[in-house]
Amino acid sequence: MVEQAVLEVAYQVVGGDFSQAGDGASRLKRVLQQIGLAPALSRRIAVAAYEAELNIVIHAYSGVLKAKVSPVKVEVWAEDQGPGIPDVELAMKEGYSTAPDHVRALGFGAGMGLPNMRRNADELEIKTVLGEGTIVYMCFANRA
Amino acid sequence: MNLKAMVEALDLRVVCGEEHLSRDVSGGYVSDMLSDVLAHAALDCIWVTRQSHRNVIAVASLLGLAAVVLVNCPEPSPELVSKAQAENVVLLYSTVSAFELVGGMYALGIRGCRRA
After folding, report:
1. What number is the average pLDDT over the span A97-120?
2. Which of A53, A112, A117 is the mutation pick for testing B, counting most B CBs within 10 A?
3. Which domains, from first to last, does chain A contain?
4. DSSP string of A61-105?
């Protein structure tokens, strides 16, 4: 099989900086639209990537949002240096959140971020090390 | 129904995005939690909220919403308006309460949306 062409992008994410929060996901969505990915798929990826990016802004110190696009799939990684997730199963539960009050006041911390990622991605995998950081991996099949 | 007809019928103020008012409205969603909106708001729907910070614009843009209607909140900041303009998001402002506003929308035939 011929090696498939791929496109890779990476956007830095700054923990605690709500003024730039979501910019990475917005830029990713623009790239996906420009290369002609189906709008419904771009939207699903953008929503999941936004949630992953916001988790870095809310919970971590710094991180990066990366994506790799091939004709068959789109892969997204949200990697951070942060506190890690003590109980992933609990964090996946809809409504559970550890976001502080000032973040909730902005309308974040509904405990729907990870469930939204799971709903939109075809595959979701979380690797986390306490005191070091978290990697959220998501894969979206490109069935266009 | 398009945005222009809704804006006129409900006497909403167009903060920015006047040039996009011919856009059709698919339905409506009300929430102040951004993830809730990300989970449930459909393409081309209007979002009624009292959140008026810039992340609202990012969410509206990502989802392809027809408009954001600010309600029960202070005047939108110049920063919010410039972000909305940059992202081509229509920003509307209501001076009546959320309850009155949504009732008015419902009376116009706009129904709640819920993404599959």
Report:
1. 94
2. A112
3. 7-141 (3.30.565.10)
4. SEEEEEEEE-SSEEEEEEEEES---S-HHHHTSTT-----HHHHT
- Tokens linked to A124: 């979701």
Phi first, then psi, for residue A136 (nearest 5°) are -105, 125
CA distance B46 to chain A (A): 17
At A120, is the pLDDT very low, low, confident or very high (cuts 50, 70, 90)? very high
Whether the CA torsion A40, A116, A102, B49 is positive or negative: it is positive
Tokens coding A94: 């809809």
β-sheet with B13-16: strand ranges across: B13-16, B91-93, B67-70, B45-49, B27-30
What structural domains does chain B harbor? Answer: 3-107 (3.40.1390.20)
Two structure tokens written together for B60:
């509206």
B12-36 pLDDT, tens digit per residue, is 999 999 999 999 999 999 999 999 9
